[in-house]
Amino acid sequence: MIRHLFLFFALTGISAFSQDHAQLAGNDVAFDTLAIQHRGRIKPFLSFAQEITTSICGRSSVSIPDIGKIGSRQLILSLWLNPAGWENEPILLVDDPALRRELSLPGDTRLFSPRRLAGIAKLTELSRQAELSRASGARAETLPLPAAAQTVSLRLRLFSSLVSGDAFRVVPSPSGSSAGAPWSPPGSPFSLDQLLEQQKNADFSRPKIQLEVAYLKFHPFRWAWIAWLLSAIFLLIAGRDPKHRLLPWGRNLAYLGLLLLIAGFAARIWIAGRPPVTNMYESILWVAFGAGLFAVFFSIRHRTPIY
Fold first, then answer.
1. CB-based burial, 156-170: b 16+ in 10 Å, e otherwise
2. How far is residue 137's CA from residue 134's CA, in Å, rounded to a whole number?
3. Whole-angstrom distance, CA of residue 36 vs CA of residue 76
């Protein structure tokens, strides 16, 4: 696979993609609500951009020499609309120190250019070892180094699908297709208005797309813990003085934090179509919700502000 990627970069290096430095696309918020099919789900472009940037860079934003810090939306739009030169920019994560040493990569950075990684024969060899280990059976354990190399190879493959346009499945399947039929990348050239027009009669919920964008921008769980932190501070200052002026503020902020958690859970359940119980982050949210709910219940039952 990496050998094919190296050939891809070699060919694009002498074609229209041939330029030393990447060019940024506009950071256009109008793309946020563009629907895209990814991992079996129709989601907004903003969600797709954040997930993909985290997958290839390790974070939802990346700092690039001569360009500066850019967010997920602008990075993914740039890879899509201005793919030339991005194979030379350090945007792919190699987070395993042992793998960096094995590949003779500098130890003081974790981001490297796709072209550089695709040209390392040792990475291809280690990735092949991981593939053979997994193909040999479920009981075969993949060693840490080949497993880390395969993760980097998957990032290279994902980058290739981004700059080629194959990852951007924004054109709905023809009417009459079965549910879950694959969407297609757009032809070239195209405009955002054309894509949105093509999606008008597609089988997905536009309100759900808009809600997910609002959820991603508002961060209800972040505001919930901020409200609870302020509530705890105010209630501790107020103590058991029923006439302290900060007491109502602390109590109301506690209620606000709980309401924000409930709203966040409701949004996630409707967006994903399932209860949010599939990963550690969601489990922690449930623990926080339970603690807050019982605190409010016992506070009302025992008529005390601190619980």
1. beebbebbebebbbb
2. 6
3. 13
Range 17-22, long-range pairs (CB < 8 A, 24+ positions): 17/83, 17/84, 17/85, 17/87, 17/163, 18/84, 19/84, 19/85, 20/85, 20/88, 21/66, 21/85, 21/88, 21/89, 22/64, 22/67, 22/78, 22/82, 22/84, 22/85, 22/86, 22/88, 22/89
Give residue for tokens 């990814």: 38
**3-state class (DSSP) for residue 27:** coil
Rg of the chain over all Cα atoms, to the nearest angstrom: 24
63 in helix, strand or coil? strand
φ, ψ at 187 (rounded to 5°): -75, 175
Percentage of the chain beyond pLDDT 70 is 90
Q: Residue 2 pLDDT more than 60?
A: no
Question: 3-state DSSP call for residue 109?
Answer: coil
Coil/strand/helix, residue 67: coil
Q: Which helix (H) or strand (E) holds 94?
A: none
Q: Tens digits of per-residue pLDDT, 37-96? A: 999 899 999 999 999 999 999 999 999 988 999 999 999 999 999 999 999 999 999 999
Please report the pLDDT score of residue 229 as a whole number.
93
Neighbouring C-beta atoms of residue 251, cutoff 10 Å: 18
Please check the confidence at residue 30 and state whether its pLDDT lies above 50.
yes
* Cα distances (angstroms) measured from residue 84 to each of 15, 77, 141: 9, 12, 39
Contact present, 126 and 108 (Cβ < 8 Å)? no
Q: Please state, in angstroms and rounded to a whole number, the distance separating the CA atoms of residues 42 and 211.
A: 13
Sign of dihedral through CA atoms 91, 164, 202, 34?
Answer: positive
